[in-house]
Design goal:
Length: 196
């Protein structure tokens, strides 16, 4: 089982949306995912349980089940909890979610400093930019910003699209074709990183 820890410094960065949609994309490919929800708001668990129809291959984690992926969605963190630190140590990959906004990058840097304190943790961390607006000055600085944070970045990004916000209500069907392709590309990038 591949363990993926999903962290971000701020709420509203797309952490839970990315967690559920990436698991859904892997479900489309026949892979199963259990979701652990460490966020006191329980957004990921609520999303799954409130879904009008089951999300193929995705469920709230059940002990004793065999999953291909175990996704751990965390609360926004600048100062990580003990539970998050333990999940980081156990993870095969850490997805650090952040936007290209200078203020988000500042907060993300605080998460890097407070959670990713060892070279081993930094090595398995990959920055996933979300809410990126295409063809802006900020969107053209993603590699430089990842380098400033001292972590690798996933090449595909999740752009700012209203359909992602609607996905919490309508699920995968809220996404247009371009958004589905974008999520599939990110999911395949995660899969490639965990297959090494």
């Amino acid at each position: 089982m591949t363990k993926v820890l999903v962290v971000s410094a701020k709420g509203g960065s797309g952490r839970t949306t990315a967690t559920i949609l990436l698991a859904t994309a892997l479900g489309e490919a026949g892979l199963t995912s259990g979701i652990v929800d460490l966020d006191p708001q329980a957004s990921a668990s609520s999303w799954i349980s409130a879904s009008l129809k089951p999300i193929p291959g995705v469920e709230v984690f059940k002990k004793g089940r065999d999953y291909d992926f175990l996704w751990t969605d965390t609360q926004p963190l600048v100062d990580p909890t003990t539970q998050t630190r333990e999940a980081a140590s156990a993870a095969n990959i850490i997805l650090l979610i952040g936007s290209d906004s200078p203020l988000d990058l500042h907060a993300t840097n605080m998460t890097v400093k407070n959670l990713l304190k060892t070279p081993a943790l930094k090595k398995k961390t990959h920055l996933l930019f979300t809410r990126v607006v295409k063809n802006t000055g900020l969107s053209k600085q993603l590699n430089d910003n990842a380098a400033l944070l001292g972590v690798q970045r996933l090449k595909p990004v999740i752009h700012f699209k209203n359909c992602y916000r609607e996905a919490a209500i309508r699920g995968w069907s809220a996404l247009n074709r371009a958004a589905k392709d974008e999520i599939r590309n990110v999911a395949m990038a995660v899969l490639a990183k965990t297959s090494k």
